[in-house]
Specification:
By secondary structure, the chain is of the alpha+beta class. It has helices at about 5-20, 40-50, 80-90, 105-110, 115-140, 150-165, 165-175, 185-205, 230-265, 315-320, 355-370, 375-405, 405-420; strands at about 30-35, 60, 65-70, 90-95, 270-275, 275-280, 290-295, 305-310, 310-315, 325, 330-335, 340, 345-350. Helices cover about 50% and strands about 15% of the residues. A hairpin with a 2-residue loop joins strand 5 and strand 6 (about 275-280).
């Protein structure tokens, strides 16, 4: 009899254990950040690497869209993610919500040819190209080399190297402060090295003497270093890289134009029924359950169900169907389609970000922000590409100097490595 005493305690313990709630781990949150200051794929690789080093954080950074899609656990704040990006040397912010209440301004933005950054880049490109072209021609065509032509080349090349290449120098300096090297480092170091050598040859060497001639050869040969200048390299490379950056920036802007144009398919305002009267309001102020009127030729403001009337709806802009679809009471309709027939009264079932049009826009944006495996491989390579190139350039200089004893040939070979590796 006494041995059965512990059984109630065991049962009580089992009951207590059975009723203890099991807390499931909280699902990670996701946020999309707009990254500023990236100038090449290696910049995106650096930001992605820094974010992924945070505990529980998974990030994908796309250089083309300048967006970072980040998944982070409980305990990590968005401010922590932004702070990590800032410490890396770039800017980050959450993108503002779409301004649906003012679509006409968005339409103006879609139609605009350039933004201020693109306009500034084009200005640098045009000025640098106009100044660099005569420098390159005088250096490569001996017939154009008049007395003291080298000083005219210096006058034309200096603004290109200092002002035209300023974005590269600024980015290289910022990355150097954070212990990193990017494609801008190659451009900055290569052009400054060529320009610096030319300054030394002009002011302290023999290159500044009247009557100096600069031959054009496709091979490296022993020459007197004090009479050799590389102003055409410094100016020409800057102009060429600026052209590439301008075309890249313009293509990135056009890549987002399709998404903005898709969002512009929706209606701007809608006639909502209020106490039996029609009141026109912006589409952004609509709520689920609102009833609104769609007259012939108008766009349907949002997804909903027809509660009055019958008509034919043209959905060609969304589905590609060439023939309008008949709808009547109880039929579902999609926002941004066109009422091609009679008057309809529709009850809104989905508004804002829940509409089919908004979902399509999100799918397009997710596709733009995603990365293929080959792109991930390219990002990993770009992360180590620049340091490897710098080491190879230094090694090239040392080997040429040790084997030939010719400083000019060694310098030419080292600068060639830097310039050829420029994006």
């Amino acid at each position: 009899m006494t041995t059965a005493a512990p059984e109630p305690a065991i049962a009580e313990t089992a009951q207590t254990t059975a009723t203890t709630p099991i807390t499931a781990p909280a699902a990670p949150s996701e946020v999309e950040l707009t990254i500023g200051g990236m100038t090449c794929a290696s910049c995106a690789a650096r930001v992605e690497k820094k974010l992924n080093r945070m505990d529980g954080v998974t990030a994908t950074v796309n250089f083309a869209t300048e967006k970072a899609k980040v998944s982070y656990p409980v305990g990590v704040q968005v401010a922590d993610l932004i702070a990590t990006v800032v410490k890396t040397g770039y800017t980050a912010e959450e993108p503002p919500p779409p301004r649906l209440e003012a679509p006409e301004r968005a339409a103006d933005a879609v139609g605009a040819d350039e933004d201020p950054e693109l306009a500034s880049l084009r200005e640098r490109l045009v000025v640098s190209a106009l100044l660099a072209l005569p420098v390159v021609l005088m250096s490569m065509v001996p017939a154009l080399q008049f007395d003291n032509w080298q000083w005219l080349s210096l006058t034309l090349a200096a603004p290109v190297v200092v002002w035209g290449a300023l974005p590269f120098h600024r980015a290289a300096f910022t990355n150097a402060r954070h212990g990193a090297a990017t494609m801008d480092t190659l451009v900055s170091v290569g052009t400054l090295a060529a320009f610096g050598w030319s300054l030394w040859a002009l002011f302290w060497g023999n290159a500044g003497m009247p009557g100096m001639r600069h031959g054009f050869d496709l091979t490296v040969s022993r020459t007197e270093g004090s009479s050799t200048i590389y102003l055409e390299v410094a100016a020409g490379v800057v102009a060429f890289i600026l052209l590439g950056r301008y075309l890249e920036a313009r293509s990135k802007r056009r890549a987002g134009a399709a998404l903005r144009a898709l969002m512009e398919l929706g209606a701007k305002d809608v006639a909502v029924l209020r106490d039996g009267r029609e009141v026109r309001i912006p589409v952004a102020r609509m709520a689920t359950g609102d009833r609104f009127v769609v007259r012939p030729g108008e766009k349907i403001a949002t997804d909903g169900t027809v509660v009055e009337g019958s008509s034919a709806v043209d959905a060609a802009m969304l589905t590609g169907e060439s023939v309008p679809v008949d709808v009547t009471v109880g039929s579902g309709v999609t926002g941004a389609t066109v009422n091609a027939g009679g008057r309809l009264v529709v009850e809104a079932t989905r508004v804002g970000a829940d509409t089919q049009l908004a979902r399509m826009a999100r799918l397009v944006e997710d596709a733009q922000n995603g990365k293929a495996e080959v792109q991930r491989l390219a990002d990993r390579i770009s992360g180590i590409f620049v340091p490897v190139v710098l080491v190879i350039a230094l090694g090239t200089f040392g080997v040429w100097l040790g084997v030939t004893g010719d400083t000019v040939a060694a310098f030419t070979a080292a600068v060639a490595v830097l310039i050829i590796a420029c994006p």
